[in-house]
Amino acid sequence: MATTSTQPTEQRPTDSEGKTKTARLFFLDASSGRVLSANPDGADKKVIATGGRVPDGIAVDTEAGHIYWTNMGVPTQNDGSIERVDLDGQNRTIIIPKGGTFTPKQLTLDRKNRKLYWCDREGMRVMRSNLDGSKIETLVDTSPGDPRPGPDLKKWCVGIAVDTDRGQFYWTQKGPDNAGVGRIFRANTEIPKGETAANRSDIEVLFEGLPEPIDLELDLKNRLIYWTDRGNPPTGNSVSRAPMDADFKKRPPHDIVVTDLMEGIGIALDLAGDRMFVTDLAGDIYSARLDGSGKKVVLAAQGNLTGIAYAETPNNRK
Q1: Is residue 7 part of a domain?
Q2: For the chain, what is the domain count?
Q3: Is residue 14 in a domain?
């Protein structure tokens, strides 16, 4: 199942006792339905699982030793699902069965509260559940008046990130291809009392007029939000970042830190290592410093790459 290699793994000390962790990238190839992993330098590539139905979002729970990913399925058939597998590819389990979500996109893990959050594109929703798939909730529903699958691409939810410390989540609505109507939103993790997912009053629009924003990541220590954009240049096919606590009523400009992607999709941050990893649909994984400098190709022509996660696994994990 998984391929083997003699390439050394990347390790770094993690505590006062000198214990180390092994750093790995976990990523998805939508064209072949594969879940893969590799060293951060691209070496030691392994296939963890196959047969995914257009996998898109991925999250790694190092504490429990699990990988979660979304399967978009066929957008018109309401057959999206979420699966889980052990880090070594064993014990594959369906967490959210087909039809439990319409077209699940990016996925993120709330480690503190042991929850999964994801965006449902054609379902026009932001959703969450327990890690075992129980207690599925809709947190945002942009669909009132529209059938599912939703015909209005401006209502399609794609990227998701959670700030557990402040009890907020962020998501993207990309809009039609290269339309320049993409937006990034923020809301509280709990729906205000007496309100619903469809009419909640705490939703903020942070950015608008973006080419086609896709995936999100947060640097909570430095209060920065990062996102990929698969729209056309000069502002698309890029990675941008901005302060999370800006005065968004003034629609502050954001910084474009990485350019020249081929339809950028996934992003993962290694904050301790001052680096990011980005995927695009051309099948490339790039790394760069968090300020965008030092961009280089880690892996090339791997298929149609979507979600990516960076994780450090304790070497003594049982």
Answers
A1: no
A2: 1
A3: no
**Within a domain: residue 233?**
yes
Q: Which amino acid is at 303?
A: G
> Range of 32's domain?
27-314
Given this model, what pLDDT does residue 7 score? 56
CA 299, CA 283: separation in Å to the nearest integer?
A: 8
The CATH number given to whatever domain includes residue 143 is 2.120.10.30
Q: How far is CA 29 from CA 54, 103, 169, in A?
A: 8, 16, 26
Give me the long-range contacts of 175-180 (CB less than 8 A, separation at least 24): 175/212, 177/212, 177/231, 178/211, 178/212, 178/231, 178/232, 178/236, 179/153, 179/211, 179/212, 180/209, 180/210, 180/211, 180/231
pLDDT per position as a tens digit, 254-274: 999 999 999 999 999 999 999
Tokens of 293: 């400098």
CA distance 216 to 107: 10
Residue 1, domain member (yes or no): no
Rg (C-alpha) for the chain, rounded Å, is 18
Among the listed residues 127, 208, 136, the one whose alpha carbon sits nearest the alpha carbon of residue 172: 208
